[in-house]
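Section 5.1 Outputs to date
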Amino acid sequence: MDARDYDAWYDTPRGRWIGLREAGLVHSALRPRPGESLLDVGCGTGFFTRELAARMSGPVVGVDINPEWVAYALHRDGGRASYAVADARALPFSDASFDCVVSVAAICFVSDEEAAVREVVRVARRRFAVGLLNRSSLLWLQKGRGGGRGAYRGAHWHTASEAGALFRGLPVRHLEVRTAVQDPSGGTRARFVERVWPRAILTGAFILVAGDIGNTQA
């Protein structure tokens, strides 16, 4: 898909609501401190990089394996963040290079998810947040079955417990799992449902796993 066409979805009412809902969840889970640095792994066209950069005061970097999408992200950004081409499975950064590291619905398209998750944890100094697609969701019923349709073709879908298990044995602690976007239609009903849906019922289309860097999670 063309980068411009893909990014234009976030300018639609539905895309804007979903994108901002997910970006808000990521930002709240990170709890960034003033001046902290951020890496966005699998930044694509840079929507989430731009949104997070607007909410943070420190340096922000986005990386993606697709050079055309990185070029588009750089063009669209306006100078707030920097961008580079990189493989999520082998990030070109030293250990603990960034205070916070995120990846939003990108690792679910990587052939070796475990390697990408290890890299996220490796280059994070304080905190991380990884967004994945939820197999226990309405969106999976609509777009994920039979190998996926449209932009979801070839994606890996997880349950909330499977998403958390990707971090088992890694040097993380205080692992949190949340979901968002219960109703992906994005209309008035969807927005009402999102406000009242119990946090403990993990059926949103977007799974977010967040935690601190530190002692290994039991």
